[in-house]
Automatic annotation (TrEMBL):
The lineage of its organism: Eukaryota, Fungi, Dikarya, Ascomycota, Pezizomycotina. This is Leucyl aminopeptidase yscIV. It comes from Vermiconidia calcicola. Its EC number is 3.3.2.6. The keyword Protease applies. Keywords: Aminopeptidase, Hydrolase, Protease. The gene is LAP2_1.
Amino acid sequence: MVMRPISDAAVERAAASIHQPRDPNTLSNYNAWRTKHTKADYEIDFDAKRLKGTIELTLERLAQGERKIILDTSYLDISGVAIAGLRAKYNLASSRTEPYGSPLTIEVEERHASDQQSELTVQIDVQTTNDCTALQWLTPAQTTNKKQPYMFSQCQAIHARSLLPCQDTPDVKSQYTFNIRSPLPVLASGLPTGARDFQPGKDGKPGTLLYTFNQPLPMPSYLFALASGDLACASVGPRSTVWTGPEELKDCQWEFEEDTEPFIQAAEKIVYPYAWTTYNVLVLPPSFPYGGMENPQYTFATPTVVSGDRQNVDVVAHELAHSWSGNLVSNASWEHFWLNEGWTVYLERRIQAEVHGNEQVRHFSAIIGWKALSDSIAQFGEDHEFTKLVVDLKGKDPDDAFSSIPYEKGSTFLWHLERLVGKDKWDRFIPHYFTEHKERSVDSYEFKSTLLAFFESDAAASEKLNELDWDTWFYKAGFPPKPDFDTTLADQCYELADKWQALNAGKSTDFEPKADDIKDFTANQSVVFLERIQTFSEPLSPSLVEQMGSTYAFSSSKNVELVSRFYTIGLQARDESVYNPAAELLGKVGRMKFVRPVFKGLMECDLELAKDTLKKNRDFYHPICRNMMQKMLERFEKGK
Ligand SMILES: [Zn+2]
C-alpha cells in the first residue's frame, strides 16, 4: 500500500462533489472514497454455482474525516472485512433497498483514519449466492456439446454488485487484477498474464488452474466480466481472436475473420488508435440476453450473429466502437446512457460507411434504427419519461429504462450536430472529445460544454450551436426530428412490401411472388422488407404469410433476424401454423431483442402456449430476460 499525503487536487475535487453524487443508482459514498484498483481472487465452483474468494479494493480518500466506507452489494454473503490486513468492523444491511441491494458499511477506525493516508486497502471475504443476478450457470445439458458446465457474467447496468462488493457506478473507474481459479478455461475483461498453478481436486472434484488477467486501463464496474467453460480459440485478425465452444469454432472464425481488422482500422481513422491492445470476441451460448456486451478485451456476443452469411457482423462494429465510447469515455450515470449508446451507434454506422466506401449504407442502417426507435416509443408511450434522451432514474431500476431510445435518439442527435456544424468540422471534434475525456466519466452537460468550447473560436459553428434548442433535445419525450434519409437501398424493399400489401387487399392482379424477388437483397434488406410489412394497418392473411414463408424461405432461415420478424408477422396475422415454431424459437434464443416481440405476439395469440413456453424454458433464460418476460406477462394479464 502506498502512503502519501492527500493531494490538494483530491481535496478540491471532494469539496466540489461531495454533496452532489451524480449517480442516483448507487448506495455507495463514492464522493468520499474512490476505488483506484480492484483485485478479485475468486474460485469458480460449478457444483455450488458460486464464486468464492476475496475482493481487495484500493480506495482513494476524497473527504477528510470520513469514517465510513459504503459499498454496493446485492445478494452477497460477506464473511469478513479487513483494512490494511487488520480486521475491521462492518455491517451488511439486513433489508434490501430495492432495486439497489444491501449497502455494506465498513468502519474506518482511528488508526486508519489519519488524513495523512491518501489511500486505504480493504479486503472483503465474499461469496455469491443463488440469487446473484449477474451470473448465469449452465449445466452441461444446456451447452451445445453437452460435455462441460458453463458460466458467464453480465454486469450492466447495476449487477456487478451481486458479483463483488464495489462502488457500482460508471462514475468510478478502477484498474483490475483478476486471479480466477477454475477447472475450465477462463476469460476476464483484462489482458491475460498466464494460467499457472494447478491444484488437484478433492472429494472427486476436478483440479483447478489459476487464470490471471490484468486491466491497466481504468474501467467502470459494469465492465467487470468473467466466463468459464469448454472454450477454444482461433485467430480472426492480427490483434484479434474468437473464443467459443470447440464445435462452433470454425463457423465463428469464418463469420468474423474478414471484417474484424478492417472495422478496427476504420474506427481508428475516425477516432484515434485502439487503446486496449487486443480486440477479441467470445461467442456465448444462446441464452445470452443481448446482441453483445462490450467487455474490454473480450466482446461477449450472442451466437445469433453467427448466421453463416456474415450478414450480422455489424454487432462487432458496434461492440468494437464501445472501445472508445463507453469503455474509454463512459457515461457518468445511466441517466446519460445515450452518451454510451448514441455515440456507439453513430460510430458503428460511420465504420460501416467507411468499410463499404458508401454513405448509403449508413442511411440504410439508420432507417432500420428509426423503426426500432418507433417501436420503443410506441411501447412506452410518447410522453413517457424513458423516451427522453436524458432520463430521471432516481429510485428506478436502469434495466426498466433499457430500450432502443438512447441508441437511436442519441445517434440521431449526434448526426444532427454533424449536419449542423458540417461534417469536416465535426470530424475534428470527434477525436477531441474522446481525447479530452479519455479514462473519464461524463454527463450530458459536460458533452455540451466540451462541444461549445471546441467551436468557440468558430463564429459560424458557434452561433448554430448556441441557437440549438438543447433542452428540447435533452428533455422532450417522444420522437426527435426525423432525419432526411437517403432511401435508395430501402426503396426496393418498400416497393416489394407494397406489392404484398396490394395482393393482401385483393388489388393486385399481375404480382406473382417468387424467390427471385429477393435474390439481390442483403439480409438487412429482407429485414427492412419484413419490418415494412409489420407496419401495415391490415395484417396479411394467414395464407399469404405461409406463401411468403415458403417462397422466400424465411420460415427455414438460419438467420434469427429474419425468422423472428417473419414469425411476428405470422402472429399478427393469427396464422396458427407459426404458433408452435415461434414457441420453439423462444426455447432456442434468449436474446431479448428477439424474445420481446415474439413473446408479445405469442401472448396475444395463445396465452396458454406463451405461459407454457416461459415455464418450460425458465432455466434456459438468463435472469435478466426471465425477469423481463415475467413482467411482460404480468402487465398483459392485468391489461386483459
Ligand atoms: Zn452498445
